[in-house]
Amino acid sequence: xxxEMRPPRVTIRRQVEWAQTDAAGHHHWTAVLHWAEQAETAxxxxxxxxGQIWGREPRVHVSVDxxxxxxxxxxxxxxxxxxxLGTTSATYAFTATKVATGEQAAAxxxxxxxxxxxxxxxxxxxxxxxxxxxxxxxxxxxxxxGAADGSPPPDAPGR
Length: 159
Known about the structure:
The chain is an alpha+beta fold. It has one domain (9-138): Hotdog Thioesterase (Thiol Ester Dehydrase, Chain A). The protein has 3 helices and 5 strands, in the order βααββββα. It has helices spanning 29-47, 50-53, 127-135; strands at residues 9-15, 59-66, 75-85, 89-98, 104-113. A 5-stranded antiparallel sheet has the order 1-3-4-5-2. The longest helix is centred in the N-terminal third of the chain and has 19 residues, at 29-47.
C-alpha cells in the first residue's frame, strides 16, 4: 500500500510516571487511555485539524485489551491511527508497546462522534475534515476560525 492510501498514523513516546501506577506496582489501566488521547491530539495537530475538531469529537465507545504490565519509568510507544471513518464517527485504533522489550502492553479502539456545537448531536464530517482524516491531507482552516495556530475555534465550548 503506498503512503497516500495509508490511514493517518502517529506514534508518541511516554514514560510511566509514579502517579500512573497502582497499588500492585504497575501502570494503572487509565494511563493507557490518557496516552491514547495524547496520541489522538498529536495526530490532529500533525494533520492541522486540531482547532477544527477540538470540543466536537466526544468518545462514544472505548475498548482496550491489556496484555502486559508496565512499571514506573518504563518507556512506552503509543501508536494511534484512523481505523475507520463513518458518516458521523471515527474509530481510532491504538497500541501501547514497552520500548525496552517491544512487548505490546495494550491495544484498543476509541470511537468518537463528530457533533454540532449548537445541538450537541452527531452530524456528518465536513468534507475537508473527512479528507484529512482519511488521507492525511490537512484541510485549509476556514477564515477567522483560529485553526491556523491550532487554537480552538471561537465557538468551541469554554471560549
